Amino acid sequence: MISLLSDLARALGLAVDAALLQRAAFTHLVEHPSIALAALVIPLIAGASEMLGKAYVLAAQQVGRWRIMASLIVTGLVYLLGVLVWSASAHVLLSLAGGLSVSETVLAGTIALAYAPRLLSVLTVAPYYGEFLDRALDAWTFVCVGWGFWVVIGGPLGLVIVSAAAGWMVSAAVRHYGGRLSEPLLRRLRLVTPGGGHD
Fold first, then answer.
1. What is the predicted pLDDT for the residue at 99?
2. pTM of the model
């Protein structure tokens, strides 16, 4: 338990370095794969952060506390699913291209660390600059993933860019449609999603 908490704390510390494009943040994952697994908490928190930004809307709609909490968790899980799909896509592409030099766990951890900018998603609810900030966070995240791939894979550059871009598109589709596809079930459970309401 202490080891897990230590890994989680270390992963959160590395996330700050990853957002600042510090090479050491990603090389640490290669040397310590257990941190890569712990880093998967970052997209969970990032998803919850996005939903938290809409908490005042939920409160105004008199949504119960347990449903708000469940909605935070579901949104986090959608983000996590996006990371896992992205890493799986990159893993397959790198395997086919013969450029795979790291495990899928390290790839997933790299992407998870690179989601650090999305921890600021709570700010995207702002009425005037929210949409611009959301796009900026997406771009920042993509740059972090590309840099992380470059560090852990080691090139060639074209393969790194293609792997990052292809995975990004798949992940974006999962994030975009994940909430929509799950919305009917969530409505039946009386939960809410970032774009949804409640009964």
1. 61
2. 0.80
